[in-house]
Design a protein that fits this description.
It contains two helices and three strands. The protein has helices at 16-27, 58-77; strands spanning 2-9, 39-45, 83-89. Helices cover 35% and strands 24% of the residues. The longest helix is centred in the C-terminal third of the chain and has 20 residues, at 58-77. The protein starts with a strand and ends with a strand. It has a single domain (2-90), classed as Phosphoribosylformylglycinamidine synthase subunit PurS (Mth169, Chain: A), CATH 3.30.1280. The chain has a three-stranded antiparallel β-sheet with strand order 2-1-3, covered by helices on one side. It is α+β, with helices and mostly antiparallel strands and 91 residues long.
Length: 91
């Protein structure tokens, strides 16, 4: 099963890279750009060979995958002090 993790800086954290991109877009004629926030994107594919999940319903398996990937995001993929993240589990 595959999960997507979107990591972005918290709104209260200044985003210098996003600021530079916003200025560059304005220079290119995109005057309607108000703000740009940069982030990271992770695509995590988990093996389906876990015997512990073999007899779970699709919804239960999905919840287990989401919990596992959320744990990964908490421990490594995102810095919870300055970043927020969301996990999306795909079929």
């Amino acid at each position: 099963m595959k999960a997507l993790v979107y990591v972005t800086l918290k709104p209260s954290v200044f985003d210098p890279q996003g600021h530079v991109v916003a200025e560059a877009l304005a220079t290119l004629g995109y005057q309607d750009v108000k703000d740009v926030r940069q982030g990271k994107f992770f695509e995590v594919e988990l093996a389906d060979a876990d015997p512990a999940t073999a007899n779970l319903s699709t919804e239960a398996h999905r919840a287990k995958v989401e919990a596992r990937v959320t744990e990964m995001a908490d421990k490594l993929l995102a810095n919870p002090v300055i970043e927020s993240y969301r996990v999306e589990v795909l079929q």
